[in-house]
Amino acid sequence: MILTNGRVILADTIRDDLDVEVRDGKIADLRPRGAAQNAIDLGKNFLGPGFVDLHVHGALGRDAMEMSLESFRVICDYHGRGGTTSLLLTTVTAEIKGIVSVLTRVREYRSQIPQIAGAHVEGPFISPHKAGAQNSEFICEPKPEVTDQLLVDADVIKRVTLAPEIKGALQAIERFVSSGISVSGGHSDALDEEARAGFECGMRSATHTFNCMSSARRRGIYRIAGLLEFALGEPEMNCELIADGHHVSPTLMKMVYQAKGASGISLVTDATSGAGLPNGTPFELGGRKCVVKNGVGLLADESALAGSVASMIDLVRTMVRDVRIPVPEAVAMASLNPARQIGLPKKGEIAIGNDADLVVFSPEFEVKQTFVAGEQIYPP
Questions:
Q1: Coil, helix or strand at residue 306
Q2: How far is residue 224's CA from residue 371's CA, in Å, rounded to a whole number?
Q3: Any idea what the Cα angle at residue 79 is, between residues 284 and 353, rounded to 5°?
Q4: What confidence score (pLDDT) does residue 35 get?
Q5: Helix, coil or strand: residue 228
Q6: Would you say residue 353 lies in a domain?
Q7: Residue 150: CA count within 13 A, CB half-sphere
Q8: Are 234 and 225 in contact (CB under 8 A)?
Q9: For residue 236, with 0-12 CB atoms within 10 Å meaning exposed, 13-18 middle and 19 or more buried, which class applies?
Q10: Is the torsion defined by CA of 269, 275, 276, 281 positive or negative?
Q11: Domain of 182, in residue numbers
């Protein structure tokens, strides 16, 4: 397969003069545009690396916690329409046995759905003070006998979100990291020194930055940082960002961009089962009743946000239009950066030898085609 007449988004530039050859599911060559036979004409649309979403709960009324092949397919198909070629099915704060059951199903079904890169365990090791839409009933400490149950599936878990300040968290971070799992601080009320302690144990990311996390406060007569400021100020910390235009304002998105630069941000949808559903449609998240309203997910009483209803192309569009960053940087935030966070070296960048996970989108940021390993998954 040869893709021609596209605006090819490379790591730091856009090339209008390249053909991309795909062979055996890989990017086989990048060469000057020629008169190749049977080439696919991209009509001057953008050609970028497929998006990698570290944080996906659901879509179209289906949730990862359903742990069925059908629900996983619906979720992946929906996000494929938004350009996502790899994603982490994300659990919620629930009973450990339920989370373990989801991990078992992810292992069982990932060979049948190539978009599934693994799982993200969000909770139950979080702060009750920053639970957000998570179900506080199931919050617990990461005791060794509990983390043991999760580490049976260490090959499936690519990411864990926890609050570094809770009892047992530091030991848990070390255990997860030593098992090859990326640890992200989130749903956390950590003080500056508690965030740093988590960092020193291996935590290298902040979950949905600005949302459900501590920020600067007074301790006595002094002002100290929270997890937010620690993540913004520590160069080795990567910041998840839900750039859907609802969770974080343009000014705050500009702030994190100025602090972290393009390489320090990973766009995530945090999409719930409400994604793709019309306004006013009810849905559930971890047993809590929610509703889609004005383009975002809310708890039914509208007291808090409950994940997004976005796809990745929406986030890229927002970063370019509202934050005014270059297209290659916004695309890297949605592809290269998250791929590196969870150890996917052959994804996230158009380069010879990489997986042919690709997205074609218009100058208006509407996805036209999505390819996984050279196979077109959207339109089906």
A1: coil
A2: 47
A3: 145
A4: 73
A5: helix
A6: no
A7: 30
A8: no
A9: exposed
A10: negative
A11: 49-348
Whether the CB-CB separation of 163 and 185 falls below 8 Å is answered with yes
Reduced to 3 states (helix: H, G, I; strand: E, B; else coil), residue 12 is: coil
| Mean pLDDT of the chain, nearest integer | 97
CB contact set of 33 (below 8 Å; sequence gap of 6+): 4, 5, 17, 18, 19
4 lies in some domain: no
Q: What is the CATH number of the domain that holds 134?
A: 3.20.20.140
Please list the alpha-helical segments (H only) found in the chain.
69-80, 96-109, 144-151, 169-178, 192-200, 227-233, 250-260, 312-321, 327-334, 336-341
Q: How many CA atoms lie within 13 A of 186 on its CB side?
A: 31
Q: Report the domain count for the chain.
A: 1
At 252, the amino acid letter reads: L
pLDDT band at 184 (very low <50, low <70, confident <90, very high): very high
Pairing of strands 84-91, 116-122: parallel
Question: Which sequence positions are flagged as catalytic?
Answer: 270
Nearest residue to 172 via CA among 259, 68, 96, 65: 96
Q: Find where tokens 């999505």 sit.
A: 370
In this structure, the number of other CB atoms found within 10 A of the CB of residue 111 comes to 8
Residue 28 lies in a domain: no
Residue tagged 């559930």 (tokens) = 284
**Distance between CA atoms of residues 124 and 111, nearest Å:** 27
Residue 6 corresponds to which tokens in the numbers above?
A: 């596209």
In a domain, 13, yes or no: no
Token pair 């991209």: residue: 42
- The per-residue pLDDT for range 140-182, each reduced to its tens digit, is 999 999 999 999 999 999 999 999 999 999 999 999 999 999 9
DSSP three-state, residue 72? helix
Residue 368 pairs in a beta bridge with none
DSSP annotation of 333 reads: H
